[in-house]
Here is the input.
Amino acid sequence: MIAGQLQSIGITPQSILLEPVGRNTAPAVTVAALLARAQDEVLLILPADHHIEDAEGFHEAVMAAADIAEIDYMVTFGVIPSHAETGYGYIRAGKPINERASHIQQFVEKPDITRATNYVRDGNYLWNSGMFMFKPSVYLAEVKQYAPKILAACKDALQGATSETDFVRLGRDAMVSCPSEPIDTAVMERSQRGAVMPVDIGWSDVGSWAALWEIGEKDGAGNVTSGDVVTEDSTNCYVRGDRKLISAIGVKDLVVVETDDAILIAGRDRAQDVKGIVGRLKDSARSEADHHRKVHRPWGWYDRIEQGKNFQVKVLQVYPRQKLSLQYHKHRTEHWIVVEGTAKITIGDETLTLGPNDSTSVPRGERHRLENTTDQPLKLVEIQFGDYLGEDDIIRLEDIYERADPA
Here is the structure.
């Protein structure tokens, strides 16, 4: 997904790093710093799930923070609090460095409402945004001093990494052995080089569905809706539907979210507790805890829209100039119907070019490949028949993405 988004805006990344296991933010940032240390240019560390209303103000703050990072400080962006929030950590600002930034006096974990209220009244406390700027050399020196096990494991993970097209896969054994710790506790809270710069940029970490209600455009009754939604005598709700019509009647302060594979209904003040449900799903080995119906691949994506005994139906989209592996299946046949674009299809020794409403079949055991040789997306419907339809029934003969067989 990330590779496709970068391609769509004309950016070729130096690398996209893939972690075999999650180890929190300190190891992730350490690996990035190790790769960037040769140039030693200032790094901007941004979590992916943040919302910033004032983009121009944020850009200005980044340039100001870069100047501070250039003189060997590790800068974090402290958001000026608009209210007493218990879902964020706080940073207490200390002595000024210049007119924009101060030394970090203290990191504070997520407080209760009383302490949060006192922090806002104090005026020296800022929300911890989790965004940082520093030179790789400065950060790595601090990691070496305060988290040497993380540094050693990350070096080993890069040493054992493998490359494939846009991606670098970090060494699994090294990452499994790496301590799992956020950058705040591993480095920033211990370092004497920490600096905090206050910003007022309309920031939210979008850490819950309720956060989307807070930043969303509300109707006259305080509801935020997305998709095919009808409300009647309902107030202050967040209602989102991906496909189905949702009708909300006489309810208030609810979060209702419908996706292809699940529906969530929660009190808006309990939206952060979804983690407990996810834990129960994992304990029950429910696939919904880890997998979506829509699955992204290097060449595009597929969406499983129907499944029954001995059959399933998928919609596939292949990105421009991409192709699937040359492969065959032991247990299933496939029937392809082109919906949009032009498909180049190899079946055995035959090559076909199909447009919208054209179709073809792939016999079980026959080698085949699907390609999009155009600059436009290719979309088709795939119908599979067989006694086994798992994704591990793929035997790859050639693959430009250098993937191993699922088995």
Observations:
- The chain has three domains: 2-204, 209-274, 294-398.
- The chain has a mean pLDDT of 93.
